[in-house]
Every structure is written in structure tokens, then in C-alpha cells.
Amino acid sequence: MDDGSRNAGGPAAERTSALARTPPRAQPPEEARGPSVGPIATVAGGVPAVISALRHVYGEMDVVRGTKLLLKVNQKEGFDCPGCAWPDPGHRSMAEFCENGAKAVAEEAMSARVTPAFFRQWSVADLSLQTDHWLGKQGRLTHPMVLREGATHYEPLSWDEAFALVAEELRALDTPDAASFYTSGRTSNEAAFLYQLFVRQFGTNNLPDCSNMCHESSGSALNETVGIGKGTVTLEDFDRADAIFVIGQNPGTNHPRMLSSLEAAARRGCQIVSINPLPETGLNRFKHPQDVLHLIGPGTALNTLFLQVRINGDAALLQGLAKALFELEDARPGTVVARSFIDDQTLGFDAYAAHMRAVTWEDVEQGSGVPRAQVIAAAEILARSERTIYCWAMGLTQHRNSVACIQEIVNLALLRGGIGKPGAGLCPVRGHSNVQGDRTMGIWEKPPEWLLSALTREFGFEPPRHHGMDVVETLHAMHDGRVKVFFALGGNFLSATPDTEFTAEALRRTRLTVHVSTKLNRAHLVHGRRALILPCLGRTERDVQARGPQFVTVENSMGVVSASRGSVAPASEHLLSEPVIVARLASAVLGARSRVPWLSLVEDYDGIRELIARVIPGFDDFNRRVREPGGFALPNGPREGRFTTKSGKAHFTVHALPRIKLEPGQLLMMTIRTHDQFNTTVYGLDDRYRGIRNGRRVVLLHPGDMKALGLSADQLVDLSSHFEGETRLARAFRVVPYNIPRGCAATYFPEANVLVPVNSFAEKSRTPTSKSVVISLTPAGESRALPAGAVA
Ligand SMILES: Nc1nc2c(c(=O)[nH]1)N[C@H]1C(S)=C(S)[C@@H](COP(=O)(O)OP(=O)(O)OC[C@H]3O[C@@H](n4cnc5c(=O)[nH]c(N)nc54)[C@H](O)[C@@H]3O)O[C@H]1N2
Ligand SMILES: Nc1nc2c(c(=O)[nH]1)N[C@H]1C(S)=C(S)[C@@H](COP(=O)(O)OP(=O)(O)OC[C@H]3O[C@@H](n4cnc5c(=O)[nH]c(N)nc54)[C@H](O)[C@@H]3O)O[C@H]1N2
Ligand code: SF4
Ligand SMILES: [Mo]
């Protein structure tokens, strides 16, 4: 496998290189070659998607295992796709998976193995010189492994020793708040529930999660205004909507089956408006890869209107839409503003109306980069649509003003009376397959009071009342010695967090880092004084416990809870399931202090679900209801026309427009996903839809900006980010001319995370501003004075 890196190549036997003594690198290596760049794809899906999916699956495992797995994805008796959180349709066809779901399955169920022999051959420092792509290709982790103090290589240890080691470090802490327990969103409800129970009985609310970096802004925005931190629509609403707005989201790559819903909607005349700095391929034309009749031919046109907003120009654009709606209402009184809905169900309308009427077209056009005529065209679609769905993802959540910006969407929906009726509502599209469920289970550093009292009632202990630390606070606390033990249930904390070099230093200063993982990743390589890797079962695998085969449950982006049952043999006989790891850890750490029957609970997960039913609202009769085909929907007040805020009403909110000041030569950069990755897991080196192949260290620029900055295509540049007088450097990115607004730049996550300042985060939600990074570019070589990743 040639992955274009300088350091690709098979493991050398018994490496004893001098490198083994240098500290492991936190950043992936530079690329020796530039990418090949072709035109942007015009159609998503189709034959290339089928070929790509099959290449990934059959490249990683034999045909029988591969086919068996693909037929089980998202089936009623199968496992929930480990990819994204898009829901399964009620009527399931034979093969309910997409290209990227197939890649996620292949990545988990691959045949290659990372064994103790592998770790004997490779020092941690040598592994850190490899690309993320290479690390992932080495295979599934098979044994619990430990990196002892001062050691250069991981070595195997028994599970009992592993749990005893964690217990020893946790017990040695002065306070339970000196430990932090991260969660990534693939964890099942059962594991998540046990985990938060263990952590709170241990004595802390330090439960940062990937949500802090993802849809936290949506949760904050929606909780305040409509009373629930989740979306209000179901998949059926997509069959009834008159208009669907897709804002700051790239579904063709990140939620591919959403395109099937959009395609069905477009075919029956629903208007689709996309708001994005990039003309993302999936939204232009789409061919359903499993719809053989449509594989050949031009595909379905999805977009009615594409508004090419500049990065972070959405607040101005959304206020422009509101302004235009008020102007339409003046022209056709009584047809646009949902007067009786507003009077009955909302607060704050008059202040909002006054504010929007005062917004000028100059503010709107300058702030958004979208011409007035296009804003008015979108407003006309909104005004004519009785049922509008608003979808959004990371393009809105990762800016300084994200919470305010999302609340502008809520304002528009309220203005049109569009929450709580069929075919209409709010749809934050979640990322990880169970990230929403993990939060429902209590994975949150700011637990609600009802949860804490329920834990006391059911389990007879007093959980801590003070809030714990989120991701950003955890980074600081590890850096300055307040947090000494870092435990991660899944994920890749090193590469997913902002400010890679700051994060690396934070991890290095801890006493112990522990990762429960399926695959090797860079977070295992930048470690505390001691480190553990605890390998676990993945979604695709059979989970058999003392009382027989088990299933777990997950909640999708629309609040539907369903079962997930693995079907293939585990990658190694030494793997434990996540619930078992948590239970054995809790039992080792808490001992007789806890009256929770940890070990018997994991003999049959029905026992865990009974506890969930007693503690978490909406899970009554959980064991029976989750066995019904398709599972069940959780209660959702706003969906049922009941706003669950303190006032019982939905709230209009008023926000000033953001002002990001760019100096001459500076650009605003977003860090986005390619078509060949799942977050920090790099499946391959192509971004097929964007026409970029065989390279990830690229910076997408408008040709006009390239000219103004004196840069040419394929030129190698260093990127510097600028924040509150600090500078951060990322070396050796290739310039790619692209259809992106002036003043904007795009790079890929996680290569560019080194540029995201740890102290630059959204107001209220504290989500790192991964889509609003102020940068400048210098030809490579001219910025050599500063070491890579240094903060000047
Ligand atoms: N295959 C695959 N699927 C995934 C993932 C993956 O990595 N790979 N990740 C999963 C996860 S955890 C998540 S959270 C989701 C992420 O799904 P997305 O949010 O779609 O992911 P991003 O690539 O971050 O894309 C953000 C989109 O927002 C646009 N954008 C950036 N800045 C702005 C802005 O200021 N305004 C507007 N209007 N648009 C902007 C970008 O051009 C891009 O189209 O996907 C999930 N699904
Ligand atoms: N610059 C920038 N940074 C970002 C983002 C961005 O858009 N730009 N997006 C942010 C977002 S939206 C998110 S959600 C975070 C993602 O942050 P994380 O969730 O921490 O990262 P992932 O890359 O999804 O985690 C991948 C690892 O999870 C492990 N894994 C996979 N499956 C399982 C499983 O079933 N069980 C267990 N225990 N482990 C498993 C594997 O070892 C794999 O290496 O990144 C955030 N960071
Ligand atoms: S849309 Fe998401 S959940 Fe569905 S098959 Fe694709 S990756 Fe899996
Ligand atoms: Mo995410």
C-alpha cells in the first residue's frame, strides 16, 4: 500500500533505531508528493460509489465475510452501522448501507491484526512517524497492552493486571476530580450508562465527550430556545416537507443516505436550498448506488438553490432571510408571519421583529457574501413553504458565534410557525452513530439535577454536584497538572482535539493514559508516564456473555432507539465488550464501596437496560420495546407541539452579527472531512467528489486570492494561524485552486488541528472553532525559524 508518505513501508525486524528514544510525534508526517487534482465531481453516488465501497470491503477481508457483513448493516436483526447517526428508513431494502458505511464496516471488520509481536517490532516513537492511514491499515488490536514507565515499546499484560493498574492510579489521586473520563460517540447506551454511573460513584463529573467538539452548540442553542437539546423531526417528516434547507453540512460524504431522503423529496417537488462555502457534490446531483435503474444516466438534481455563503457568514444570511420575510409580510400581510402560533407559543417576538427590521441589506451582503437577490429568492421559498425542515452540521457548530447562529435558525422556524407539525422542524444532523444516545445516558460534564437524584435513589450514593470539565477544560487541566489520569472510552483524543501540540504536551504530563479502542491510533502514541490500550469488541462482532449472546442499543439522530447485534467472530479471543470493560474496571476501583452488582449486570445486558429504564425518562419497558422491529422513539416535547422550556414557550432571541477582523493577507480557514475518512480514521487518500486524489495536506483557495498572495497551484506553503497575539504553524501544505469564496480557505481535519487555538471556542458551548481559524500563508521554507507546532 503506497500512501505517499515518506515513512511508508513494512515493519523492520526488531527495530532498535535511535528514534526509539526521541519523544513520539503528535502530528502526522508531511507528504513527499503533491496530490493529483481534477475537476469537482458533478454527480454523487452512482457506479463510482459502488466500486469504492466494494474495493474497501473486499480489500480488507475475504468475500464471504465481507458479503455477510454488508447484508447485516442496519437490518432489523443486524448491527447498527458504525458510521454516522443518520436513521434507518422504516422499510428496509436488502442492502441498507452507503459507500461510507461500507468503509466503516471494512475498517472495523478487517482481517489484519495488531498483535503483541507487532508491538515488539515497533517502538512507540517509530510508530509515530507513520501516517494515520498506515496506522489504521495495520489492523485490529488483539491484546491488552501496557507501556511501562520509561519503556519504548508496548507489551502485553492480563486484563486483571490492567484493571489493577488503573485502580492503583485512580486510588492514588488526591481528589476524584484529578481523573478525566472521555467518551467518543460509538459507545453503546449500555456501556455509556454503566460508565457514567461508575465515574460518578468514583466521585467526579469529569465526563468530556466528542459532543463537546461537535453538536454541543446545537444542544446549547436548542435547550435555551425550545427546551430540548435535540432535533424535532423524524425521517417521515422528509416525505412531507415543502422545503429543506441544508446548512453547513456535506451529506454526500458524511451522511450519504440522507441523499436518498433528499432525492425522494426532490422528485416530488420539494425545494432544496443549500448554504455552504463549497458547492458540495452530493447536493448537486445524486444517483442512488443501490437503485440499479438510476445508476446510469444523469441522476436526480437536488438543489433548487445554492447560496455560496462565506465562512461564518451564516448569521448575516439568516438575518437577511428574516429581514426579507418581514418585507414579504408587509407586501402580503397575514401570509408570512405565523401570528397565532407566535402569540400562543412563543416569547420575545417584538424585540426580534424590531431587530430584524433594523438590519440593513449592506450588513447582510457584506457579512454573508451572498447577493441580496439570492437571499430574497431563498426567502420566497421559505415564505411559500408551509413545511420546512432545517438541517445543519459542523459548518454551523464550530464557530465563535455558533450558538447564536443556530438560534437564528430557530427564530426563522418560529417566525413561520414551523416546529411541532408534520413535515417541518429542526434537524441538527448528528455525527457519530450513538453520540446522541451517550448524552441521553448521562455522559455529560454538566449533569442535570434529576439525573443525580435518580442515581442517589437507585444506587444509594451521593454523586458530586459540581460540574465537571469539558474537552477544552480537560486539556488545560492536564497541562497544568490538575488532571493526572486520562481514560478514553473510544475515540482519538490527541488528533480530534484542537491545538495538537498543546494537547500532546497535556497528555505527556499525565501519570496514566488509557484508551479503550478497536484500532491503533495516534492517541496511543503520545502518552502519560504509563499508558494502556484496552482492546474491545466492535459493532460488527458477536458479543457472548455468561447468559448467552447479547445485543446493545443505540439512539439515532432523530431520537429512535434500536438494537444492534454483531454477527461475525471477534477479531481476537482476548477482546472484551465495552460494558464488560467498564463493569470490571468499576468493580476493581470501587470494590465494596458500590452496591451496584457490576459483574452480574454484564452477564446479561437486559439487567443494565432495566436500570436504564428506572433512571432515564422515556425508557419505560425498555427491554420489551427495544425488541420490537425498528425500536421506539423517545419523547420529544417540541415535536409534539409542547415546548419544554421553563416558561413552556419557545423563545425568539436577538443577536448582534459577528465581526471577525482579517488583516491584509489573512484568510478565514475551515477544517473539513474528505470523502475517505471517518474523523481521525483515514480510509484512503482521495477526496473523490472534490477531485483531489492521493494527498491530504492541501489548502483550498480561491484563484483570486492565490493571485493576490502570489501563490501558484501545487505550490508548497506553510500555514500560520493567528489568535490573540499567538502564532501556530503547520508545515508543507499544497495549494489547490478551488471554487471557494474570496477570503476563505479549507484544509482537512486532523492535519490542520495544530492550527486551532485551544482558547478559541464558541460562546456558551465552548466548542473549538475548527471552522473559523484566521490564517496566513508563506511559501514553504520561509517560516523555518519557528519549530513545527510551536506557539510563538
Ligand atoms: N464518511 C464520514 N461520515 C461522517 C464523518 C466522517 O468523518 N466521515 N464524521 C461524522 C461526524 S462525528 C460528524 S459531526 C459529521 C460531520 O458532518 P459535516 O458537518 O458534513 O462535516 P464537515 O466535513 O466538517 O463539513 C462541514 C460542511 O460545512 C461547510 N462549512 C464549513 N464552514 C461553514 C460555514 O461557516 N458556513 C456554512 N454554511 N458551511 C460551512 C463545509 O464546506 C462542509 O461542507 O459526519 C459524521 N459522518
Ligand atoms: N479541526 C477539526 N477538529 C475536529 C472536527 C472538525 O471538524 N475539525 N470535528 C470534531 C468532531 S465533530 C468530532 S465528533 C470529534 C471526533 O473525535 P473522536 O470521536 O475522539 O475521534 P474518532 O476519530 O471518531 O475516533 C476514532 C477511534 O475510535 C476507536 N473506535 C472505533 N470504533 C470503536 C468502538 O466501537 N469502540 C471503541 N471503544 N473505540 C472505537 C478507534 O480506535 C479509532 O481510532 O473530532 C472533532 N475534531
Ligand atoms: S448514512 Fe451513515 S449510518 Fe447510514 S449506512 Fe451510511 S454511514 Fe452508515
Ligand atoms: Mo462529530
UniProtKB/TrEMBL annotation:
<dbReference type="InterPro" id="IPR009010">
    <property type="entry name" value="Asp_de-COase-like_dom_sf"/>
</dbReference>
<dbReference type="Pfam" id="PF01568">
    <property type="entry name" value="Molydop_binding"/>
</dbReference>
<keyword id="KW-0560">Oxidoreductase</keyword>
<dbReference type="GO" id="GO:0045333">
    <property type="term" value="P:cellular respiration"/>
</dbReference>
<dbReference type="GO" id="GO:0016020">
    <property type="term" value="C:membrane"/>
</dbReference>
<feature type="domain" description="Molybdopterin dinucleotide-binding">
    <location>
        <begin position="667"/>
        <end position="772"/>
    </location>
</feature>
<dbReference type="GO" id="GO:0030151">
    <property type="term" value="F:molybdenum ion binding"/>
</dbReference>
<keyword id="KW-0408">Iron</keyword>
<dbReference type="InterPro" id="IPR010046">
    <property type="entry name" value="Mopterin_OxRdtse_a_bac"/>
</dbReference>
<dbReference type="InterPro" id="IPR037951">
    <property type="entry name" value="MopB_CT_YdeP"/>
</dbReference>
<dbReference type="InterPro" id="IPR041953">
    <property type="entry name" value="YdeP_MopB"/>
</dbReference>
<keyword id="KW-0411">Iron-sulfur</keyword>
<dbReference type="GO" id="GO:0008863">
    <property type="term" value="F:formate dehydrogenase (NAD+) activity"/>
</dbReference>
<dbReference type="InterPro" id="IPR006656">
    <property type="entry name" value="Mopterin_OxRdtase"/>
</dbReference>
<feature type="region of interest" description="Disordered">
    <location>
        <begin position="1"/>
        <end position="39"/>
    </location>
</feature>
<dbReference type="Pfam" id="PF00384">
    <property type="entry name" value="Molybdopterin"/>
</dbReference>
<comment type="similarity">
    <text>Belongs to the prokaryotic molybdopterin-containing oxidoreductase family.</text>
</comment>
<keyword id="KW-0004">4Fe-4S</keyword>
<dbReference type="GO" id="GO:0051539">
    <property type="term" value="F:4 iron, 4 sulfur cluster binding"/>
</dbReference>
<keyword id="KW-0479">Metal-binding</keyword>
<dbReference type="GO" id="GO:0043546">
    <property type="term" value="F:molybdopterin cofactor binding"/>
</dbReference>
<dbReference type="InterPro" id="IPR006657">
    <property type="entry name" value="MoPterin_dinucl-bd_dom"/>
</dbReference>
<feature type="domain" description="Molybdopterin oxidoreductase">
    <location>
        <begin position="140"/>
        <end position="514"/>
    </location>
</feature>
<keyword id="KW-0500">Molybdenum</keyword>
<dbReference type="InterPro" id="IPR050123">
    <property type="entry name" value="Prok_molybdopt-oxidoreductase"/>
</dbReference>
<protein>
    <recommendedName>
        <fullName>FdhF/YdeP family oxidoreductase</fullName>
    </recommendedName>
</protein>
